């Protein structure tokens, strides 16, 4: 090597025999070995600038001694060594893996995690918004943001670039809410079906699919008209799992309407007949909405049956989760306060309830404004 030079505060910069410039940053000793980080360039000014960036990253707390990783490598490590061991629900982990495999790795996986820029992420999400729903883009963004937050925590990067991007407008994502008349059409189509009461109670109680299937008869007190959400049924890792509710607030006590009580009573009668028909094959596990031999109902079977019933009702656009959304919408429209709606639905935050039902609240605000005009004689 030739032409060793060092400017003030720059660190070690020199020119190799082949003409390429090198800047070397000393990272100290680790496990008895001296660690250094090198950058290369065609000119001395170029490597001096790169060395300055290394100094800045070091000051920001980035662990420069860590092995450089591509985003794909970091996401794999994040899923298998961090999220799989920190109590993340298996179903949530499955969703993360799907987003990583189908969306993040193909588009951004080859970029080094410490070289990923706001522009990289913004261009990716903007392009994704042209083919995916705003809600789908938001889920992809949430997974990347969570992964990069842990990268900051482990000192692999100095900041989370995913936090600085602007998501595509979600105005078009507002879901259609079924009218009471359309819900009655659905109930008529489901009448007499062995799973019909699930769909009725999804509207009356606002429970999630897994919460409905996770109800045991010991969770339901028809005499005193309440139930307690304690468990959910989910398919994860290729098998059915009995899990705790989605969040701390998801584990909740719900008051039952008379309509809900009658739905549970009909389900109890129906299940008693199925128990007799199954005979010795019946496995008494206590599920309210059990299979025909007493075992947990497969969530995908519930979805398939719902698809058949909504088609029979002429409601092909309707999704099972829309029934939960309908519950919240009807409660607010009937004047139930937002805090109570939050408790009924088991939302994790008040903000989530407000954002989800902004369209209903806007109508109530208009009603409130009109009421003030009437009170003070304004037309």
TrEMBL record:
User: Does the entry feature the keyword Glycoprotein, yes or no?
Assistant: no
Q: Where are the transmembrane segments?
A: none
Annotated Core-binding (CB) domain residues: 69-152
Stretches assigned to the Tyr recombinase domain? 173-370
The record's listing under InterPro entries reads: CB, DNA_brk_join_enz, Integrase-like_cat_sf, Integrase_catalytic, Integrase_recombinase_N, Integrase_SAM-like_N, Tyrosine_recombinase_XerCD
Q: Which Pfam families match?
A: Phage_int_SAM_3, Phage_integrase
**Keywords associated with the record:** DNA integration, DNA recombination, DNA-binding
- Protein name (database record): Site-specific integrase
The major lineage groups are:
Bacteria, Bacillati, Actinomycetota, Actinomycetes, Pseudonocardiales
